[in-house]
Protein: 15-hydroxyprostaglandin dehydrogenase [NAD(+)]
Organism: Papilio machaon
Amino acid sequence: MKAVRHMRKDEGGEGGTIVNISSTAGLCKYTFLPIYGGSKGAVLHFSQSLAREPFYDNTGIRVITLCPGPTATKLMEGLDNRIVETSSMKQIQSLSDVQIIQSIPSAVAAMMKLLKEGDNGSVWLSANDKPVVELTEKINKHLDELEKLTLA
Ligand SMILES: NC(=O)C1=CN([C@@H]2O[C@H](COP(=O)(O)OP(=O)(O)OC[C@H]3O[C@@H](n4cnc5c(N)ncnc54)[C@H](O)[C@@H]3O)[C@@H](O)[C@H]2O)C=CC1
Ligand SMILES: CCCCCC(=O)/C=C/C=C\C/C=C\C/C=C\CCCC(=O)O
């Protein structure tokens, strides 16, 4: 939030863009990553809450979220040894039939696209070496429906 204070137009800054990095683990209920997944769900929710009107109008700061799937960085090394619940290995094994560890250039291409084209509050998926997919409408529909249920 210190960066926001520095960037915000209504306090003398120039506006700008914040890209928060969530993960597919913040979208899916992976039994093998409950703590990491919880933190990534929090990143997404934090971003969507921050990006809500009138934040952008006041500050000129876009808040965008990228959800990468497994990507070949150091983070993915030795994942097997860091699993909390060993019975969850089954879920990883079945996932490996339908998901690949994508290359770093795929994640970078996604980042470049959302920096160029992403609206405030937009959410993007980059996985399996496929072109980036925008998730904003789906995520907001889901959150807006849940919010309605909380109203009297
Ligand atoms: N690699 C993957 O499969 C995925 C990664 N992500 C997310 O992408 C982000 C980047 O991860 P990777 O590049 O994959 O990991 P990485 O392990 O290759 O890089 C992480 C970087 O963060 C730095 N770092 C760690 N703790 C820090 C701290 N307290 N203060 C400052 N710097 C710190 C490390 O020195 C390292 O350079 C993370 O938020 C990760 O959760 C999301 C989805 C998939
Ligand atoms: C420390 C946690 C790193 C988590 C990285 C992340 O954010 C998201 C990961 C999502 C799933 C990763 C789980 C397993 C990998 C699944 C399939 C790829 C296997 C392909 C293979 O070559 O074996």
